[in-house]
Amino acid sequence: MFLEKTKQLSLEEKLQIISSKSFARLADKSQVLTPAQRYNEPVSNRLTHSHQTAIGAALIESVLTEEIKKKVDFTHSLENACLLHDIGHPPFGHDGAKLIDRIFKDAGLSEGFDDNSNNYVVLEKNLPSLRNTVLSGILKHKQKLYPYQQQKYVSMASAAIEQEVLYFQNLLSIEELPERTIVCEIMDQADENTYTCMDLSDFFSIGMGTADIVAALIPYFSDPLILSFLERLIYGIEKKSKNSIKKQMSYILSEFNKNYTFGKNLTLRHKNEELLLLRQKLLQIEFKHFIHAKENIKAREEYLEKLSIFTKEVISGKREPTSKTYKNLIDNTKSDQLKLRYLRDMVAETTDVYILQQIK
Question: For residue 45, which phi and psi values (nearest 5 degrees)?
Fold first, then answer.
C-alpha cells in the first residue's frame, strides 16, 4: 500500500515538474553547445540531458533492485530527482555560474552563486510542494548550500538518509550513516554517465571528433565488449554515419549504467573496472577536445560577455528587473544583501536565448 501511494504521488509530482515554466526553460540552457551554435544537427540541452539522466538512473536502479530482490527506490523519488538535478543551472552552464558568482561577490554578496544551491531557489519559487525525498535526492554537496539554506536542507537530507538506512539495514551492511541518499547517489552516477556519452555523441556527430582520438584508446583495454564498441564507433566516425555514432554511444551508456553494485554504506561501486576506465578516458576526451576546443571557448567567451553586460546592468539599475516576482521582492526590501540575492536569482533563472536576444 505504501509503494502504491508513493508511486501515485510521484506521478502527480512528475506532471507538476514537466508542466512547470522552470523545467521548460531547460530547453534553452546549454549542455555544451549553446542555442546560438548551429551545426545543422540536434544537440543536447539541459532538458534532453535531464530526461536521459532519469532513464539512465532507472536502469541503475533496476540492476540494484535485482541484486537485493527488493525495490531500491522505495519512495519513487529517483526519476523526479533526476529531472530536477539541473533545474538551477544559469545561462551558459558552468562558465555562466562562475561568472555570476564572481560578479555578485564583487558587488558585495558574500555567498556568491552556486548552481546546486540555486536548484532550491528555483524549486521554492516554482515548485514548492515537492516531497522531501525528492529534494534530498538532488543534494550532492551540503557544504555548498547558501548559509540560509543549510539548516532546512541538511536536516531534510539527514531524515531521508535515516529512513533509507532503516529500509536497507537488514539487506546491506551499513556501518555508518551515508553522506547522501541512495537516490542522490544513483542520480549522480547516471548524470556523469549521461553527459559523458551524450556530449560525445554530439561531438562526433557534428564532425568535431575524429576516429584517431578513439583509436588511441584501444591499447588501454582487453575487454572484448569495450574493444568491439571502440571498433564500431571508429567505423561510424570514419563513415560519417550519425546514426551509427549515436547508436554506439547509447549502447555504451547502457553498459555504464548496468555496471553497478552496492558498496559500503549505501554507496555504489563499479563491477567492471575496465568499463570505469573507459568512462574516465571518454570524459578526458570530452573536456580536452570538446569543452575546451578553441571554437567552443571562443563562442563561450562571446556569450559570457553578453551575460556579464546584462548582469552588471541589472545590478547597477540601468536595466529594470525582468521578472514581476523579483521586482516585487526587490521593491519591498530595504536590505542591500537581499536585493542582491533577488537580482542574482533573477539573472540565474534566465536562459541562454534570452540573454542573446537582450544583448545584441
Answer: -130, 180
Residue appearing with cell numbers 552496492: 262
**Domain-embedded: residue 217:** yes
- Residues 117-144: pLDDT tens digits? 999 999 999 999 999 999 999 999 999 9
Count of domains for the chain: 1
Phi then psi for residue 165, to 5 deg, are -60, -45
Kindly state whether residue 314 falls inside one of the protein's structural domains.
no
pTM greater than 0.85 (yes/no): yes
Residue 268 host element (H or E) = strand 268-270
Answer for the pair 260, 63: CB distance below 8 angstroms, yes or no: yes
Q: What is the CATH number of the domain that holds 20?
A: 1.10.3210
> Does any domain span residue 352?
no
Tell me how far CA of residue 103 lies from CA of 112, 305, 308, 343, in angstroms.
8, 12, 8, 11
Other Cβ atoms less than 10 A from the Cβ of 157: the count is: 24
Cell of 299: 563562442
> What is the extent of the structural domain holding 65?
2-298
Q: Which amino acid makes up residue 39?
A: Y
